Amino acid sequence: MPVTTTNERTATPRYLEDFKVGDVTQTGEFTMTRDMVLSFAEQYDPQPMHLDEASARDTLFGRLVGSGWQTLAVTMRLLVDARLLGGTPIVGAEFKDMRFHAPMCPGDTLRASAEVIAIRPSKSRPDRGFMDMKVTTKNSAGTTLVTQSWSLVVPSRSAVSL
Amino acid sequence: MPVTTTNERTATPRYLEDFKVGDVTQTGEFTMTRDMVLSFAEQYDPQPMHLDEASARDTLFGRLVGSGWQTLAVTMRLLVDARLLGGTPIVGAEFKDMRFHAPMCPGDTLRASAEVIAIRPSKSRPDRGFMDMKVTTKNSAGTTLVTQSWSLVVPSRSAVSL
């Protein structure tokens, strides 16, 4: 299974025909500072388990944990930085089956991987298609935090000559 | 179908037994400023269609649009502020079937609604269960931006007496 890391990718656009089922992209890392975790929570997910240690102790988690939405947002950042589609923008048609296996905590260093599961030409638009990927986010201990399935809109090479 | 708005809800905890299929929560509103849209994009989704008008013109969208991940994060904020579960934290077990129907743009005012689709006691843990909800996010023109399905972990009343 070919695994590509960030520094091998350029900003050259990649098309549907450039991928095959089984291709895996591994991202670099992103460390969650306490400030980032609190700042995201204050803006988007102001709940006791995300805002301060004292309030978090009385929750299901028993300690301060980051918002799952921030884990998802950082996963996007990791895959953008890894140039998942080279110079082609990453546009989601659908995100599915997001499962939260373990919480992200301040200080965690996250990495993600994305594996091509299926490639489907569009029935109505010959200039594009869909690429289904399994995306996994782990912390540096190797614990899986989130798994999800992405369906991306990817241009086909025929789009170039249109 | 009973529709509850924010100001009727208190911080009193709500339990699995307090909900029924068909219950709908309507949130308040949240206006996306250009600064918020750009700041989120710079941190979490630095792609041409999210970073500036000139680069966005050459993308699939043809104009500056917000990150779909930010629309999802703001939807969470709206439902936290609406006290979806009263004083009980909103904890996701799974988020599914997120479909992006239309992009969010700077200046858009977002609202969300959440409808109870199913209530399932946990087989292994009598102190909790799962509540499945259909969550819809619209702009002020009434255009649906995102639909998704949530499976939340909700404590049952038996948890109180344990």
| Category from helices, strands and their pairing of chain A | alpha+beta
Rg of chain A, rounded, reads 18 Å
Largest interface: A-B, 33 and 33 residues
Q: Spell out the helices and strands of chain A N to C.
A: EEEHHHHEEEE
What's the end-to-end separation of chain A, in Å? 33 Å
**Tally of helical segments of chain A:** 4
The low-pLDDT segments of chain A are none
Q: Describe the sheet with the most strands of chain A.
A: 7 strands, mixed
- Count of beta strands of chain A: 7
Mean pLDDT of chain A: 91
Q: Tell the overall outline of chain A.
A: elongated
- Kindly state the percentage of residues in helix of chain A: 10-25%
Q: Strand fraction band of chain A?
A: 25-35%
Oligomer: homodimer
SSE blueprint and pairings:
Two copies of one chain form a homodimer.
Chain A: E1 3-5, E2 24-26, E3 30-31, H1 34-44, H2 48-51, H3 53-57, H4 68-81, E4 92-100, E5 109-121, E6 128-138, E7 144-155
Parallel strand pairs in A: 1-2
Antiparallel strand pairs in A: 2-5, 3-5, 4-7, 5-6, 6-7
What does it look like?
The structure is a homodimer of 162-residue chains. The first copy, chain A, is α+β, with helices and mostly antiparallel strands and 162 residues long. Helix content of chain A is 21%, strand content 33%. Chain A has helices at residues 34-44, 48-51, 53-57, 68-81; strands spanning 3-5, 24-26, 30-31, 92-100, 109-121, 128-138, 144-155. In chain A, strands 1, 2, 3, 4, 5, 6 and 7 form a 7-stranded mixed sheet that branches. The radius of gyration of chain A is 18 Å and the shape is elongated. β4 of chain A pairs antiparallel with β4 of chain B, so a sheet runs across the interface.
